[in-house]
Specification:
This protein has 425 residues and is α/β, with parallel strands linked by helices. Helix 8 packs across helix 9 and helix 13 runs parallel beside helix 14. The longest helix is centred in the C-terminal third of the chain and has 24 residues. It is globular.
């Protein structure tokens, strides 16, 4: 059977479809690059915003219009709206998050002996979800009660993968010629809180660095609390990628309280200062929500000023999206859509300026780039695109396809959406 895996949303969803694809492949099925080529489509859905939920439904409808009548729908939106999910055209199975680990056996039933054998080495997914980097699921679930977040409802309580399991996935990725592993989770910083050993995310990373020789280890989004000096000392190992994505969500103390975030502007500022004292050129990126219920003009001005002060290396801006079942959906003081849009544009402009300033610091430097994608142009060779360890997007020309290789590059200038570089090897 030919199977296409699709996803909307976070890096954890990407990690999960890579694992599912490996299981289907081990059971003897072919993983294809497009829904039009498939006998079955598996969609890992998202519900973090109304737009993500809509995109998830659209993925299903697109696959069905292409003639696929065997669609498996899983993930956060399917978990929160299972009846609506079952009613979508072509959907034959809805697998909620708490059953996702057994999706393969649920769908395929009795599996051949090959499936029970030692797991196969990682093979990147074909098509739009092809990644050089391996996304490794280290943790799931969350015990925080942020008033805007529906993910906790969809994902449940915190659950940590064992150190041994995470290491095994990294080694399987390495055997498939992966150079960079990205640890993912809903609340990655809470890793170990549900385990009996009393270990933390720092202990997990120390273990992984000690027991593997992966060239790069990157962390996905991690909440900006519970990170201490011992955590910062991890970057004494050059394999740790100099990038932390710390979701701020708001820079005004009053808005953070309404969000029930476990931080304040002062705490966030102190954390950023500590990080930069240990790793001066760490890329710190963030998420910001604008138009949260009750956000006054003064609140937004404070948030805008704080984001400007933080000099982030980049970030995402979201207009508040009320999600059914969350406390924020019931809060008074809903912000007019036009106002929220205007605030979003202002916040994006501030983040774009600080992102440009961060990138400017590296013009003329020599950096190592892992090439993620390329396009072939006959006159000039390959146009290649990749990332540095501190998450700078780089593009260059090459006489050959360099996908999934790491090369030394001199950064020349800032182009439209990346840094232009020249290959040195």
């Amino acid at each position: 059977m030919r199977v296409f895996f699709d996803t909307v949303g976070c890096r954890l969803n990407q990690a999960e479809i890579e694992k599912m694809a490996a299981e289907f492949r081990a059971a003897g099925h072919e993983i294809v690059a497009q829904a039009a080529q498939a006998d079955m489509v598996v969609v890992n859905s998202c519900a973090v915003t109304a737009e993500a939920a809509s995109d998830s439904r659209q993925k299903v409808r697109q696959a069905n219009r292409l003639g696929v009548g065997n669609i498996v729908l899983t993930g956060c939106w399917a978990t929160l709206s299972p009846e609506e999910a079952r009613a979508l055209p072509g959907v034959t199975h809805v697998v909620v998050n708490e059953e996702k680990d057994s999706l393969t056996t649920q769908i395929l039933g009795n599996l051949p002996p090959l499936y029970e054998a030692e797991p196969l080495e990682r093979a990147p997914l074909p098509g739009i979800h092809r990644r050089t980097r391996a996304f490794i699921k280290a943790q799931d679930g969350c015990s925080n009660h942020c008033t805007f977040c529906v993910t906790r409802l969809a994902r449940g309580v915190p659950r940590s993968e064992s150190k041994e399991s995470v290491l095994k996935q990294i080694k399987l990725a390495q055997s498939g010629h992966t150079h960079e592993a990205v640890l993912t989770g809903v609340h990655l910083g809470s890793w170990g809180s549900d385990l009996s050993a009393g270990e933390t995310i720092t202990d997990l990373i120390v273990y992984l660095l000690k027991n593997s020789d992966i060239q790069r280890l990157r962390l996905s989004s991690i909440e900006p609390w519970g990170l201490d000096e011992r955590f910062m000392e991890l970057w004494q190992d050059a394999r740790m990628c100099r990038h932390l994505h710390l979701p701020l969500q708001a820079g005004a103390a009053t808005t953070l309280r309404r969000m029930a975030r476990n931080t304040t502007p002062e705490k966030f500022r102190a954390l950023a200062e500590m990080i930069r004292s240990y790793i001066p050129e760490m890329a710190i990126t963030t998420d910001v929500i604008v138009g949260f219920p009750g956000e006054t003009e003064a609140d937004f001005a404070a948030s805008l000023q704080f984001v400007q002060e933080m000099n982030f290396a980049g970030g995402h801006v979201f207009r508040f999206s009320p999600r059914e079942g969350t406390a924020a959906a019931r809060l008074p003081g809903r912000i007019n859509g036009r106002v929220a849009h205007a605030r979003s544009e202002e916040m994006r402009a501030v983040l774009a300026a600080s992102e440009a300033a961060y990138r400017e610091r590296f013009i003329g430097r020599e950096v190592d780039v892992l090439w993620e994608s390329n396009s072939f142009l006959s006159e000039n060779g390959w146009r290649i695109h990749g990332l540095t360890d501190n998450y700078l997007p780089v593009t260059a020309w090459s006489k050959m396809d360099r996908w999934n290789t790491i090369n030394r590059v001199r950064l020349l200038r800032i182009s439209t959406d990346a840094l232009e570089g020249e290959l040195l090897d």
